[in-house]
Amino acid sequence: MKILYFAWLRGKTGTASEQVSPPAEVATVGALMQWLAARHPGFAEALTAPGVVRAAVNQDYAEPGDPVRPDDEVAFFPPVTGG
Amino acid sequence: MIRVQEAPFDVGAELAALTAGRTDIGGVASFTGLVRDMAGAQPITAMTLEHYPGMTERKLAEIDAEAAARWALQASLIVHRYGRMLPGEPIVLVATAAPHRAAALEACAFLIDWLKTKAPFWKLEETAEASQWVEARASDDQAAARWTRQR
Question: Is A71 on the interface with B (CB under 8 A)?
Answer without folding.
Answer: no
